[in-house]
Specification:
alpha+beta; two-stranded parallel sheet
Length: 106
């Protein structure tokens, strides 16, 4: 699907959720920003469920991209504790003032 098609489809729903296995792993594939819901203008419509980076580090050339898009999620839920560390690593203390939640491993 194109970003335009995704944007049109998202307009039909109250929320759009991204998740699970390896969706935020920029090492495993070319980083696809659609998995960061870049096509949704209204940040309150964004959500994620147990999203996984499935890697030990975010490549330096992708950190700015992750910071830009993850900072727009009202709440973040990650599968693994390492994901929580990676998010804090690209966005420090979530400096935009919005409250965030993190979920680690079960």
């Amino acid at each position: 699907m194109t970003h335009e098609q995704l944007e049109e489809l998202a307009g039909r729903y109250d929320k759009v959720i991204v998740g699970s296995d390896c969706v935020w792993n920029g090492e495993a594939f070319t980083l696809e920003t659609a998995y960061l819901l870049d096509f949704i203008e209204d940040d309150s419509k964004k959500g994620n469920f147990a999203s996984s980076f499935a890697c030990d580090a975010i490549p330096d050339e992708q950190k700015e991209i992750f910071m830009r898009y993850l900072s727009r999620f009202p709440i973040l839920s990650v599968r693994e504790d390492k994901g929580k560390e990676l998010i804090r690593g690209v966005d420090g203390k979530r400096g935009n003032g919005r409250s965030r939640s993190y979920v680690g491993e079960r």
